[in-house]
UniProtKB/TrEMBL annotation:
This is histidine kinase. Keywords: DNA-binding, Phosphoprotein, Transcription, Transcription regulation, Two-component regulatory system. Its EC number is 2.7.13.3. The keyword Transferase does not apply.
Length: 375
């Protein structure tokens, strides 16, 4: 591991030299600065692990230096220990209030300073290890997702191709029976369409592009999504919409957002037993919420079906995870969450009070710019 770098900032050279000599004996690389501007320039070029910063300096004091460091995304994570002759409670609170992590009072006790520095450097190292662990975890999850998608795609396509070949054999053996040929040909077409659907969903997970956003009315998006859901899946039962927001506008990619809603509606429809051919009530309601990231539209889609299976509760957004046992299913929620996150939204699914499940979709109301969004 490379040596830690500490920037010592003080307008008194003797103080800098004392600290430099003590810390270098511990194998720490020391950088020096004798005023606030030198300190800011050094941080910009060297990225130290820790800063020992004198508070009382001419022109630019330590408080202002710390404020500028905190205002810069590239330096706000660097811990600052103030070195000061001020011992009042108010002075310490002021320093901690602008982002300092600790205080050392003058006259400096070198052994105490070393102990405080080593404590902060341990925190720096722990933070680095946590960031590295987080990066590895993200990579591991990505690799696991790719593996699950690959395995799931291969399994489902093989099954569907087996269905196609089976019906083609039936067509060949019964070519002189037009009705059976027609029925078997329709089954082949359905299987092929499911293959096409898997490929389309897979493409939506990996293709990155700029998504053009437009301002549109929420009620029109909801009505269009329900119409698509009914038309594409030959469903006649209505979705019960409670939209108190009326013509509230949002900035979104209409087709992608509609597709998310359609997939969640289908998930709600399929939550019912097959015996419930027509009586499958689905409710959709909207609300406006305020978050730290701005105003959000919240769309809740509920069903009274069999609820969330315990076997898949923690994995329902993984590709090809499904409680159904038919061929070619299991990517709907995966694609919906991926697409929604590309729109800076989110989706969660929980148990519904009284039975069934409740999917909560959040989507920003507006953006600072509607020119596009990186996927």
């Amino acid at each position: 591991m490379s040596a830690h770098k500490i920037l010592v900032v003080d307008d008194q050279p003797i103080n800098v030299q004392l600290l430099k000599r003590k810390l270098e004996k511990e194998g720490i690389e020391i950088l020096t600065a004798y005023n606030g501007q030198e300190a800011l320039d050094s941080v910009a070029h060297t990225k130290p692990d820790l800063i020992l910063l004198d508070v009382m300096m001419p022109d630019m004091d330590g408080i202002e230096v710390c404020q500028r460091l905190q205002a810069n995304e590239a330096s706000r994570h660097i811990p600052v220990i103030f070195v000061t002759a001020r011992t009042s409670k108010e002075g310490k609170i002021e320093g901690l209030g602008v982002g300092a992590v600790d205080y050392i009072t003058k006259p400096i006790d070198l052994d105490e300073t070393l102990a405080r520095v080593q404590t902060q450097l341990r925190f720096v190292q722990i933070n680095r290890e946590m960031l590295d662990l987080q990066r590895r975890l993200v990579e591991a999850r990505r690799a696991a997702t790719i593996g699950a998608v690959t395995q799931g795609v291969a399994h489902n396509l093989n099954n569907l191709l087996g269905v196609v070949l089976g019906y083609l054999d039936l067509i060949k053996s019964g070519y002189d029976k037009p009705e059976k040929v027609k029925k078997n040909a329709e089954s082949v077409e359905n299987a092929v369409q499911r293959i096409v659907s898997i490929i389309k969903q897979l493409s939506s997970l990996v293709v990155k592009s700029r998504l053009p956003l437009v301002r549109c009315k929420l009620n029109e998006v909801l009505e269009s999504a329900v119409a698509r859901y009914q038309s594409e899946n030959k469903i006649t039962q209505p979705v019960l919409i409670d939209n108190p927001l009326g013509e509230q506008t949002i900035d979104t990619h209409v087709e992608i957002f509609e597709d998310v809603l359609v997939k969640v509606l289908i998930n709600a429809w399929e939550a019912y037993d097959e015996t419930a051919a027509t009586e499958r009530p689905i409710w959709m309601r909207t609300a406006l919420t305020e978050t730290s990231e701005g105003r959000q539209i919240q769309i809740t889609i509920e069903d009274a079906g069999h609820g969330i299976d315990e076997d898949i509760r923690d994995r329902m957004f993984e590709p090809f995870i499904s409680s159904k046992h038919t061929v070619g299913v299991g990517m709907g929620l995966t694609v919906a969450r991926h697409a929604l996150r590309n729109l800076s939204g989110e989706i969660t699914v929980n148990d519904r009070e009284g039975g069934g499940s409740s999917a909560v979709i959040t989507h920003p109301v507006e953006r600072k710019t509607r020119k596009g969004l990186d996927a």
